[in-house]
Amino acid sequence: MMTAEEIHSLVLDALPGAQIDVVDTVGDQNHWRVVVTSDRFDGLSLIEQHKLVMGSLSSVLGGRMHAVEIKTMLPE
């Protein structure tokens, strides 16, 4: 199982300066929603943005983390 703090740290390591909101969607520490706002997404397709976030979580997906829903945004 993961904690929100661990997920936040993994994503922040890959995307320094990003704003990251992590929510345990069903309360089991296995199903998460991660909302990431970053300048790094500028010029990238939605798929490329999600790949960046998924890449930061690849070491725990399928193991300590069962499922993740990702939303990416550019800062306003």
Radius of gyration: 12 Å
Strand content: 25-35%
Strand order, main sheet: write it out. 1-2-3
Low-confidence stretches: none
CATH topology (level 3) name? GMP Synthetase, Chain A, domain 3
Give structural notes:
The chain is of the alpha+beta class and 76 residues long. Helix content is 30%, strand content 26%. The chain has helices spanning 4-14, 46-57; strands at 19-24, 31-37, 67-73. α1 (4-14) crosses α2. It is globular, with a radius of gyration of 12 Å.
Descriptive labels:
76 residues, alpha+beta, GMP Synthetase, Chain A, domain 3, 3-stranded mixed β-sheet, 30% helix, globular
Architecture blueprint of SSEs:
Elements: H1 4-14, E1 19-24, E2 31-37, H2 46-57, E3 67-73
Helix pairs in contact: 1-2
Write a short abstract of this structure.
Helices cover 30% and strands 26% of the residues.
